[in-house]
Amino acid sequence: MQYYESLIDNNLIDLIVHETNRYAEQTIGSSIPRKHSRSKKWEPTSKEEMPVFIALIILQGIVKKPTNEQYWSKRYSISTSFFSKVMSYRRFNLIYRFLHFSDNETFVTETHECPKLSKIWPVLKYLTIRFKEVVTPDRDVTIDESLKLFKGRLGWKQYMPLKRSRFGIKSYMLYESKSGYVWSLIIYTGKGTLFDEKYKHMCMSSQVVMTLMEPLLNKGHCLTTDNFYSSPELADILIQSLTDMYGTLKPRRKDVPKELLSKKIDKGQMIAYQRGKVCIMKWMDKKAVCLISTIHNPEMVQVQSHKNEIRRKPKAVMEYNNTMGGVDRLDKHLTNYPLIKKKRGKISITKTFFHLLDICLCISFVLYKKNGGKDSFAV
Known about the structure:
Blueprint: H1 2-5, H2 10-29, H3 49-62, H4 81-86, H5 89-98, H6 121-134, E1 140-149, E2 158-159, E3 167-176, E4 182-187, H7 204-213, E5 222-225, H8 232-240, E6 244-248, H9 259-262, E7 270-275, E8 278-284, E9 288-293, E10 300-304, E11 310-314, H10 315-323, H11 326-336, H12 347-370
Parallel strand pairs: 1-5, 5-6
Antiparallel strand pairs: 1-3, 2-3, 3-4, 6-9, 7-8, 8-9, 10-11
Domain PiggyBac transposable element-derived protein: 2-362
Protein name: PiggyBac transposable element-derived protein 4
Pfam families: DDE_Tnp_1_7
């Protein structure tokens, strides 16, 4: 619990309580409620009540039911009495209706840092700072994309066929390779995605990398990426900032030797090209695998397959496979334990907030394991 509270702390709870009460007051005061309107029953929420509301949302991701109403059902066959004991269904719905994270009346599109995320921005900004304050990452870090399931109408909704959810809200994440701790993230919002201004002359994939890596440059870190980000140009830029990198590579990238694409090799063979610290390799497995690295050479190592056969693989491939996959594990958790039911209304706002909350839960468990906890525990 202490790891969770190091992220979702009292300051963040106070912010949510304050903005929720303000939004309720603005909404109720802007119109005349109907005779039997539920809004008439509204009482300001508090920093004691809000964690209870969030806890019920988290519990809904574990105890799965088709609708919110069923969590408060008194039918013996489906009853979950804990929910009604800690909060009434009417109160839960009221808090959910007015749940808010920013002041609508002070929002100005032209001056806001990230207008498309304005309604969730205070929470997102606070959490990204906390992620960095809680942990100093090890040498090896990784950048990859995460996708939160969302099939509604949204201008920056993405389709990624290789992800579990396929459709949804995409985030670029930098995480600690060994533990999977999410150290920084950028939510993709299309053309208005917030990147560091000093890198705006670069292609988008390099802007992602440099914006996420900015606080870690010149500290000796080593970055692993897939072929969406990797390029000789990016490797050169990172080397100048005392940062190494390796990962898969698209053979048609600029400055990649043309022979890498044209030269035919047999299964198990490798060719490599060296320029300074940058080594570009092509290894033939079932199909060609191209890599770029500033810390590897064409060294091959022996590995035992699942059929107990001894094979030779490039050391760079072995280490790449060991460092990638943290975001895929996160996506698996987000898919298996969704925190929010399908509901009409401000869904993109709540989806984004509960997505951040779910990330905090995953990070909390990572911190628990980093400090000697078990890999699993009974709920």
